[in-house]
Amino acid sequence: MNDVFGEAILDYQLGKCKEDIITSTSISDDEPLKVSYLFRTFDDMPLLEQTALNMAKGTILDIGCGAGSHSLFLQEKGFEIKSIDISPKAISCCRLRGLKNVDVLNVLNETDSFDTLLLLMNGSGIFKSLEQTPEVLAYLKTLLNKNGQILVDSSDIKYMYEDDDGGFWVDAHSAYYGELEYRVRYKNKEDSFLWMYLDFERLKTACTSVDLNCKKVMDGPHHDFLAQITLKD
Q1: Which 8-state DSSP code applies to residue 138?
Q2: Tens digit of pLDDT per residue, the chain (233 long)?
Q3: From CA 145, how far away is CA 127, in angstroms rounded?
Q4: What is the rounded CA–CA span in Å between residue 137 and residue 130?
């Protein structure tokens, strides 16, 4: 792993970033992502993210925190928050930005418990595949305190398979259409990893299979949505 995202994030924090991150997937071409977008303030965040942050309560775990923008907002509001990411350079950036409790950690190795788990910026990506989703949700369930919640956003990308006649060319015999290979490039370095865009109904079905409630909080403007997952009584 070249830690491409982390390098771009840390470069930006240190004032050394002069390039965009180039992203693509197994079904989409190269597209630039300005690194500054990862450093946006609350006022510049989409309404869906603002809503999730306003719903956060108690002790919070920010999973895949990246540059730490969500965590910083919550820390400044006085919340007790832990921010984790698998990128060492992203975590170095978070420390430089003033986050107090950060760790280079895969959430599947987390052992503390929290009132809120945050999975934002297509947080469903960490599930990687439809098959693995119940297993990951079952582990996240063990990290929740009583009356705790998971706030996750995702997108239904079925629209990307739509043809000019309004039909869909999804292969019914292939893997779930939301399972993609995600590629990133920065300063001639490249990374690729599995990433998933999960539609709400399949998220709800996976939650039910591990005895979790799942409620859609809101739809976004780009086939995206915010969901709240809670323990059953």
Answers
A1: H
A2: 689 999 999 999 999 988 999 999 988 899 999 999 999 999 999 999 999 999 999 999 999 999 999 999 999 999 999 999 999 999 999 999 999 999 999 999 999 999 999 999 999 999 999 999 999 999 999 999 999 999 999 999 988 877 666 665 655 556 899 999 999 999 989 999 999 999 999 999 999 999 999 999 999 998 999 999 999 98
A3: 21
A4: 11
> What domain range is 22 assigned to?
4-231
CATH code, domain with 18 = 3.40.50.150
CA–CA distance from 147 to each of 34, 114, 154, 156, 229 (Å)? 38, 10, 23, 28, 10
Angle, helices 4-13 vs 88-96, to 10°: value is 20
Please report, for residues 33, 51, 96, 116, the alpha-carbon distance to residue 145 in angstroms, rounded to integers and kept in the order given. Answer: 36, 21, 30, 8
Q: How many CB atoms lie within 10 A of CB 145?
A: 14
Cβ contacts of 216-222, under 8 Å, gap ≥ 24:
217/51, 217/52, 217/55, 217/151, 218/47, 218/48, 218/51, 220/46, 220/47, 220/48, 220/153, 220/155, 222/155
**CA-wise closest residue to 67 among 42, 40, 94:** 94
**Total-model pTM:** 0.94
| Number of separate domains in the chain | 1
Q: Which residues pair with 182 in a beta bridge?
A: 25, 193
In Å, what is the CA distance from 226 to each residue of 9, 17, 21, 42, 209? Answer: 25, 31, 25, 17, 20
